[in-house]
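Reminder: ligand-aware prediction takes two inputs, not one.
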Amino acid sequence: MLVRNIQEIRGSANRMSALQSVSGKSHAAGPESHDVVVVGAGFAGMYMLHRLRGIGASVRVYEQGGDVGGTWYWNRYPGARCDVESMQYSYSFSDELQQEWNWSERYAPQPEILKYANHVADRFNLRPDIQLGTRVDRASFDESANTWSVTTSDGKTVTAKYVVLATGCLSNARTPDIKGLADFGGKVYHTGHWPHEPVDFSGLRVGVIGTGSSAIQSVPVIAEQASHLTVFQRTANFSIPARNAALTAKERQSWKADYAEIRRKARETRNGIVQEMPDRGALDDGDNERRARYESRWARGGVTFMGAYNNLVLDRAANDTAADFVREKIAEIVNDPKTAKLLQPNNHPIGSKRICVDSDYFVTFNRPNVTLVDIKSSPIEEILPNTVRTGAGDYEVDALVLATGFDAMTGSVAKIDISGRNGQTMNQKWAEGPRTYLGLMSAGFPNLFIITGPGSPSVLSNMIVSIEQHVDWITDCIAYMRGRDLGTMEANRQAEDGWVAHVNEVAHGTLYPQANSWYMGANIPGKPRIFMPYIGGVGTYRQICDDVAAKGYEGFTMTSRRARAATKRSASASSL
Ligand code: NAP
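Here is what comes back for the chain with NAP:
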């Protein structure tokens, strides 16, 4: 019934918008105006534009990068590739698209994913509505008109009824505050902001600071080029071999033949990735069975290692068995026992930080031109023009790679000066940590949606599955409002408080908060320690969002366009 209603509404919205769009794109005397401004043209922004066009909305997308692709536009460091298999890390909304596109490898390299993003932009003719090289600096809500004023880096201001933040979860690269960094004599690169021209490290002594996913992917590749590579490690990380390989035509075909079912299943899973689901906990098996299971996951490779048992992120004793297994593997691979010990993570449960996936990371430390430096026991004191000075000694380098991560989940929202009702800014409201209802909206900021925002599964999932779910939900919601001539939609504080408490409660039932991870904001000095993504699972979360919509957007307040009077549709999140 709901589906039919939404289709009917879409139909009438299309007709309505066709009329509005003719006259509504710009007013002769006022600023340019759109139904929706979308910030960002990565996978989220592009699909948002496509869906909104489908309901006849006029849309302007602003993208600060020089082209589409978001994270895959910026993260061009050597060895960058996806850590979710490409047959799954791809759009599902168009069967033609998924049938015609051929991924070359199990985990596509960054240039291929960027090519795919560009193919999507062209195939769906998205470019005319995307303004590249343009940052959104400010968005302020005008309570008298119920519209947003959006100011961009080219000095223009446009108005829009809705703003959708498709700004990405890991797009605000973080440069650490290290004494002397600005005076370093060689080139300094950040993995999250890599140059577009080729970087040649041949003959150079290179220093990599950081040992998260970006470093773990780039270190083996840089080591092959550099005359010497010094890796500065503060915290060792768990990493599973990717077992990347070329995809054969037969393999691709077997995925494609079953795509409808695979995509359906992915939407119902815990993390948006279809995999063999465990039916038991790690302690339910004896030592030999457990070892065999870990060996088989290790041999298969990839993030699904953590799915070997159903309690690895819930029970510390169970988790220890998996962590011990990986530590043993590191000791087997790395020849020098001292280096092996340093590379063995020992201060967080496996999986409580995003598990890394590598191609030859640990074995790289057997190369004679690679040195691992422990900066936990002897931190970096300063950087001199050609030296990294730690408490234990000096390391000469000609180039530096900062693989130091991102101000995750909130960083790219915080860079925009967003002010909502009563002039309250988003940064003021989120000073003690992000507050959202369903990760989709924040109370006090009407008609402002966030795709894969804090409080949604986002980074704990296959991002494209979560992006598509949010975009579809937001599109249906905007169609619903248009069909009823509603003016504003806003999360209720009570619903938001309930959701924030729920997100917290679920997180604290797991081992995740035990790590100093970027999920917790722990990598940014001074950032509040709050577990930001929703751990309840992609399938469960989808059901919650669908139920909220089916109950007339329970927990949100919608006002009519004409009266602009508050019409409480519903106000309680008590059912959560
Ligand atoms: P990250 O996981 O946050 O790792 C940053 C590294 O830099 C950590 O080892 C950190 O040490 C170190 N670091 C930060 N500040 C430092 C400082 N001042 N001095 C010394 N060391 C410092 O960042 P990332 O590797 O870029 O990965 C972030 C996320 O992006 C990943 O978790 C993943 O979700 C995503 N990603 C995905 C892929 C993929 O799909 N293949 C690839 C790359 C990244 P501490 O741990 O001690 O703070």
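The mean pLDDT is 92. The radius of gyration is 24 Å. We will return to this case in the review session.
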